[in-house]
Each structure stands twice: as structure tokens, then as C-alpha cells.
Amino acid sequence: MNGSAQRTLLITLTGRDRPGVTSRLFTTLSEFPLTVADVEQVVIRGRLILGVLVAYSDGTDIGRVWSAAERVANDLDMEIEMSTGRDKSAPSHRGRLHVTVLGAPLRPDAMAGIAGRIAAGAANIDRIERLAHYPVTCIEMDVSGADPEALRAALAVEAAERQVDVAVQQGGLHRRAKRLIVMDVDSTLIQGEVIELLAERAGCLDEVAKVTEAAMRGELDFEGSLRERVALLAGLDAAEIDYVRDRIELAAGARTMVRTLKRLDYKFAIVSGGFTQITDALVADLGIDYSAANTLEIQDGKLTGRVVGPVLDRAGKAKALERFAREAGVPISQTVAIGDGANDLDMLQAAGLGVAYNAKPVVRQAADTAVNVPYLDTILFLLGISRDEVEAADAADALHSGH
User: Which alpha helices (H) appear in 171-275, and where do they start and end?
Assistant: First the structure.
């Protein structure tokens, strides 16, 4: 079978799923001089679709193979389709891509639009799988023959029109190799902005909020805007930091995300334009491996209105990501960065995968992909981790811990 085109037989079995169907078909096929070229199996609501592509040489009695496969289908009370052909396909140099679609809800017109864009790019959908049905519906597609940048651009337009999130990533080992997650804190890992919570206690919320918004949109230099806002906190009792820390709320799904990734031996890091007086508690609570943030200066039990040392700004966040990757022994290409503001841009662009999470428009446009649903654990789906896998691992942990 060394010719340019192999003879092939495609066998498709459809019917009620039960144990042993796959084993029974392959046992029958093993009686013939065939090689397995491809296999795909899907079960939907108890209905099995099993496709097997086998290759054979010119001397093979394919009629006997056909009859034997039909007998298997009849015995199992399943429908069978078979077709012969020649496999002339050459390996695609453009490789495989994962296209992940998130919707709440996910409607048929969105899937139609996305599938249409893939087809318009002369690409093919090889596999479709559901990774989650709540809190969002997540569908993942394996796509071959597409130009990654062109497909990403086309699907970004479609996603905006259909009000869904679509991520395009390199397939296979490229995605599975991601081992370090680096995340922004304010309005990403936690709800709200710490400096605004402190400003509320200091009675200067309106002034601080205006500067924060302008800085997040990228209209102001981050370092200057941070120093300006911190100066407004001068004289605030340091005990108010404890008050704010106790009222911090994690983003929905944050614990699930960190717990799941840590269980899978990912390293997890946080980088914040906020303050170590808050992030240190998050590190201890969630078991985070690395962190970097600014530190509020405190003298005689009160905030001075200054920060200690250099400000961790946009460039500083990217440098922190690089430092964490070195410490973890992980190449930059195997990192994921998650953020929402303009000061996250360098970090998102430096990482192997940059995710804009409920982000400002300038950030969504610059990141590799955007997630706009209010559930942080949906980022697990971008890494190919399904909701069923998360829940199975949680159940196993609960069983082992005796809860």
C-alpha cells in the first residue's frame, strides 16, 4: 500500500449504544488484511455513531469484508452504511485548530454562522464535541485546512454579530502543553476594584473611580494614575484595609478554576496593579504559586498616600509573567494570561494564549481570544477541560476526603 492513493472502505454504524459494539466490529475486521486509517465515535442521548475507515490492498476480497460487517450490524440491530474510495488526501501543512464556541444561550443561527465562516475559508470541521452545558454551553470543533489568523479574524466578526464567544487555538500538543496561568486580580479574579473599595472608605470614591476608568481604557499612564489615586487615600486608617479584605468577593467560578488547574499540576500566578495587602490573602486562600503587586506604604497605622518601591505597571506585568515562567521552568509559549484592562495588554500579548475576560474593547481587540460571560471557570473549556471532567474530579476528591 505504498501508492499515491490507498483503497479505502468507510463503515458507519448507527443505533442504540451498548457495551461491546466497537469491540465486536473490530474483532470481525481483524479477520481480514486491513489497516485502520481513522476511527471516530460519538454518543448522543444513547445513540451511537461509529465510523471506521480501513485501507486495503488490491488483492483483498472486499465483498467478504462488506458481508461480514453487515452481519455485525444485523446481530446488533444497528444501521450500517459502507462506501469505498481512494484516500488521496495529503497532510495539511496548516495543521489542526481548535475552535471553541461559548454561548449563554447558544442558538442554532450562531452555529450556522460559525460553520459557514469555516467553510468559506476552505477549511473542514473534522470533529464536534460538547464540553459543557452550564453555566454556558460550550462546543468545541477540530478544524483542519484553515489559516489560523484568517479564521480567527473571520470568526471574531461572526462572534460579535451572534453575541457568542469564539476562541481559535492551535490544536494537539500545542494546547495541552499550557502549564502556567497568569491572571490579573481586580475585576478578573475578584469582583470590583480594590482601590475603589478603599476610596469608598476614605470618602473619595467618585474622584478615584473617574481616574480608574480612564486608566483601564488606556487613556492615562497607569503609573501616574495609580500614584494620583493612592495619594487621595492619604490618612486612611490601615484597619480599613482589613475591612475591605474581608469583603472581597471572588469572581463566579474562580475557586473551581484554580482548584481544577492546581489538581492538574498547572502553576497559577496573579499579577496586580493593586496591593499586596490584598493579594497576599488571596495567595494563602487559593494556594496560588506566584504573585506580584504593589504595596501601600503605611506609617503610624495610616496610609501615607504613597506606594513602596517601583509601581507594577503594564510593562511590569509582562516582566512578572516572564519571571514566573522561568521560576516554573515553563516556556512562554506554554503560558496563559488573563486580564481585562489596558495595563494587561503587554502580558496578554507576551503569553502563549492571551484571554481578554469581560474586557474593555481595546483589550478584546488585542487578545488572542475574548470571554464575555461572567463565569471565570469557562476558561477551563478553552484548555479542553470539560464540565464533566471537573465534576468527576470534584466528586472523587469529596469521596477521598470523606465529605
Answer: 173-176, 194-202, 205-216, 222-231, 239-246, 254-263
Inter-residue contact 122 to 150 (CB < 8 Å) = no
DSSP letters for 126-172: EEEEEEE-SSSEEEEEEEES--HHHHHHHHHHHHHHHT-EEEEEE-T
Residues with catalytic annotation? Answer: 184, 186
pLDDT at 93: 43
pLDDT of residue 90: 45
The answer to whether the CB of 277 falls within 8 A of the CB of 245 is yes
pTM: 0.80
Ramachandran quadrant class, 237 (left: phi over 0; alpha: psi -120 to 50; beta: rest): beta
Query: Where is 349: in which H helix or E strand?
Result: helix 345-350
Q: Tell me which residue has cell 494546547.
A: 175
For residue 7, pLDDT beyond 80: yes
At 5 the pLDDT is: 58
Concatenate the DSSP letters of all residues of 4-36 into one string: SSEEEEEEEEEEE--TTHHHHHHHHHTTSSEEE
Mean per-residue pLDDT of the chain: 90
β-bridge partners, 303: 298
Helix (H) or strand (E) holding 73: helix 62-75
**Cα–Cα distance measured from residue 134 to residue 253, given in angstroms and rounded to the nearest whole number:** 12
| Euclidean distance between CA atoms 68 and 45, whole angstroms | 28
Sequence-distant (≥ 6) Cβ neighbours of residue 399 within 8 angstroms:
none
